[in-house]
Amino acid sequence: MLVARMNWMQIEEQAKRDDRCVLPLGCVEQHAYLSLATDAILSERIAAEAAEPLGIPVFPVQAYGMTPGFTAYPGTISLRMTTYIALLEDLLEGVYRSGFRRIVLVNGHGGNTPVMTAVTEWMGRRPDASVKMHNWWAGPRFQQAVKATDPAASHASWMENFPWTRLEGVTLPDGVKPPFDAALYQAASPQRKREILGDGNFHGRYQRPDEEMLALWAVGVEETRAVMVESWP
């Protein structure tokens, strides 16, 4: 259930019945020919589909994240780590005050992952709370399915090209982009990173058939749903 379709009284009653909730995390950054909001679109959608049969509320996606390496690409917005930590702590406090104690952060952007250290510190101040960060694209089952489909999968490649991340009127290249020098890229400034990457796809094909993508998506939804159910302390 989406929090956007609930009122405060329904949230109050829901938290009394079940203290789980979901907060999707995304990012607004370059994704080559795909939407700048790809990470936010995917995290919010997979969280909603995974939580729906469980009846767990899903808060609106926190769309902005930490992506300093892509700031030379227009449209990319990156929060400072201090800003992001403060923001996430405020969000956690808000859902905690609402009565939720088991919180799943369904994360769609790798650059957000370091904030889990601050989340663990927050749990030290709220010992009755439990928070999981699920990097949905990095789940072992999803990654196994990706590698079985095409091991050349990366940022802004076919792996993130779903019907809901494509842009109307934009034609994707028909080819395979070769890998770049990862060590050189790691040591480069944002402007130099753009020069190294070019269009923004790290490597691999730009698109694969929709039947393959929808099958992968189903794996991701099931794996994300399991995180909401299993292994709570």
UniProtKB/TrEMBL annotation:
<dbReference type="GO" id="GO:0016811">
    <property type="term" value="F:hydrolase activity, acting on carbon-nitrogen (but not peptide) bonds, in linear amides"/>
</dbReference>
<keyword id="KW-0862">Zinc</keyword>
<dbReference type="GO" id="GO:0046872">
    <property type="term" value="F:metal ion binding"/>
</dbReference>
<protein>
    <submittedName>
        <fullName>Creatinine amidohydrolase</fullName>
    </submittedName>
</protein>
<dbReference type="InterPro" id="IPR003785">
    <property type="entry name" value="Creatininase/forma_Hydrolase"/>
</dbReference>
<comment type="similarity">
    <text>Belongs to the creatininase superfamily.</text>
</comment>
<keyword id="KW-0479">Metal-binding</keyword>
<dbReference type="Pfam" id="PF02633">
    <property type="entry name" value="Creatininase"/>
</dbReference>
<dbReference type="GO" id="GO:0009231">
    <property type="term" value="P:riboflavin biosynthetic process"/>
</dbReference>
<dbReference type="InterPro" id="IPR024087">
    <property type="entry name" value="Creatininase-like_sf"/>
</dbReference>
<keyword id="KW-0378">Hydrolase</keyword>
